[in-house]
Amino acid sequence: MQYALLGDLHSHYENTKSVLYHIGEIAPNAQIIGLGDLFECKIGKKKAASLTSLIPLKEAVILQEKFCKLLTFPSIIGNQEERIAHVTGEQKFLQYKEQVIIEKATLLHGHQFHWNEKFEPRFPTYETPLLFFGHSHRAAIYIEKIRTKIDYNLPIHVGNGQTYEINVGSVVESRDWCLYDSEQMTVTFFQAPLHK
Ligand SMILES: [Mn+2]
């Protein structure tokens, strides 16, 4: 089965539309799953922590109807959704799961583990050989926890018993997405062209 994984959309309509269009061209039968930070919270971390009353949704989130209509796929929760729920009290932003396990792979948003001062992740151990995540907006693949250069459009074989952590990059900054083929056991990074 094929999975198209995208994360860190941050309410960016044009880029999300472009990535979904590209997925439709490259892997029309893939199951699409979001890796969190679908929405952009306009309230920063510090301000959110010191709030004494709830903020109206309009002031707290970039929320366009045309963007919401693109969100027809399941997603896991990101730090943006958690903060939006915290500052607005809107529980619907907490509807997403913290983690999803698909064939040989765990999916989550990277805010669930520790990041160092260089914004590099320190991975806990997972039960699956593959981990797909977002958060830092930097597409990357780690083989046995060592960061390795990526090439776009070239399938990487991930079925050889090693562990792989895969940062799918971001939609908002670079229209990144990742194709995981669980039969071929390959992962391919893509960058969608802008589709108007
Ligand atoms: Mn994030």
Rg calculated over all Cα atoms: 16 Å
Please give the share of residues in helix.
10-25%
Give the names of the bound compounds: manganese (II) ion
Q: What's the CATH topology name?
A: Purple Acid Phosphatase, chain A, domain 2
Mean pLDDT: 96
Regions with pLDDT < 50 over 5+ consecutive residues? none
**CATH architectural grouping:** 4-Layer Sandwich
**E-strand count:** 15
Distance between the termini: 29 Å
CATH class: Alpha Beta
**Pairing-aware structural class of the strands and helices?**
alpha+beta
* Biggest sheet statistics: 6 strands, mixed
Specify the CATH homologous superfamily. Answer: Metallo-dependent phosphatases
Lateral arrangement of strands in the main beta sheet: 5-6-9-13-10-11
Order of helices and strands: EHEEHHEHHEEEEEEEEEHEE
Structure write-up:
This protein is an alpha+beta fold and 196 residues long. It has a single domain (2-191), classed as 4-Layer Sandwich (Purple Acid Phosphatase, chain A, domain 2), CATH 3.60.21.10. 21% of the residues lie in helices and 28% in strands. It contains six helices and 15 strands. It has helices at 13-26, 45-50, 57-60, 65-68, 79-88, 171-174; strands spanning 2-6, 31-34, 40-41, 61-62, 100-102, 105-109, 114-115, 121-122, 130-134, 140-143, 146-148, 156-157, 164-167, 176-181, 186-191. The strands form four sheets. It has a six-stranded mixed sheet with strand order 5-6-9-13-10-11, with no helix packed on it. The chain has a five-stranded mixed sheet with strand order 2-1-14-15-12. A hairpin with a 2-residue loop joins strand 5 (100-102) and strand 6 (105-109). The longest helix is centred in the first third of the chain and has 14 residues, at 13-26. The radius of gyration is 16 Å and the shape is globular. The chain starts with a strand and ends in a 5-residue tail after the last strand. The model has no long low-confidence stretch (mean pLDDT 96). Bound molecules: manganese (II) ion. The site of manganese (II) ion has 7 residues, from loops. Belongs to the metallophosphoesterase superfamily. YfcE family. It comes from Lysinibacillus odysseyi 34hs-1 = NBRC 100172. InterPro entries: Calcineurin-like_PHP_lpxH, Metallo-depent_PP-like.
